[in-house]
Design a protein that fits this description.
Layout: H1 3-11, H2 14-25, E1 32-34, H3 36-46, E2 58-62, H4 70-83, E3 89-93, H5 94-101, H6 109-114, E4 124-127, E5 133-136, H7 142-145, E6 148-149, H8 153-157, H9 161-172, E7 182-183
Parallel strand pairs: 2-3, 6-7
Antiparallel strand pairs: 1-2, 1-4, 4-5
């Protein structure tokens, strides 16, 4: 599977496209729907699942270094909830998330995605100006399509981050859902 096939799989999913079209309405700067939204769809496809695996939330990120108040995130989240109430929306401005994560500031949403814990989760999709589907995979798609869970380079290099990675792997228990996964642990 390559990036074009991932894009095609998402384009064919009416539910995913409705979410992307809805987020685009907000016109957030440097926005992406990311992480499990993309990863779970691809893992479901590679496992031959006919039904979508429920995800705990739909992660929407954006990058606005001017308006960094958490209230702005909640305002966007509430707008999305008013448009599609059945979706568990989670909206974060990555221009402020470095403070919460106690790391150097991100430069953009894609920079933030590159610093997500797992390579298979470091993904985002959005609709461009002409509604073309755009995939961001700053650490690549190979681990995703090979069903391998590994820490991103940021997590292997930054002090103390591997503990967070390993705690997430234990908590998420993804292998109980997608049994073909291969998980890298120390």
């Amino acid at each position: 599977m390559n990036e074009e096939e991932i894009i095609s799989i998402i384009k064919e999913d009416v539910w995913m496209m409705e979410i992307l079209k809805t987020v685009k309405i907000l016109n957030l700067p440097d926005w992406w729907v990311c992480a499990g939204f993309v990863r779970s769809k691809i893992w479901d496809t590679l496992h031959g699942f006919n039904e979508r695996t429920p995800i705990p939330d739909v992660d929407v990120i954006y990058f606005d270094p001017i308006e960094i108040d958490e209230k702005d995130e909640k305002k966007a989240e509430n707008m999305l909830k008013s448009l599609i109430p059945c979706i568990p929306w989670s909206v974060k401005n990555e221009a402020r998330m470095h403070i919460k994560n106690n790391i150097p500031p991100y430069l953009s949403s894609i920079d933030a995605i590159s610093k997500f814990p797992e390579t298979a989760t470091a993904l985002g999709v959005k609709l461009g100006e002409r509604d073309e589907l755009i995939l961001a995979a700053p650490v690549g798609i190979m681990d995703l399509v090979n069903l391998e869970i590994k820490p991103t380079p940021f997590f292997t290099e930054a002090k103390g981050m591997m503990k967070i990675y390993e705690e997430r792997i234990a908590k998420k228990n993804w292998k109980s859902i997608w049994n073909k996964l291969k998980i890298e642990q120390n």
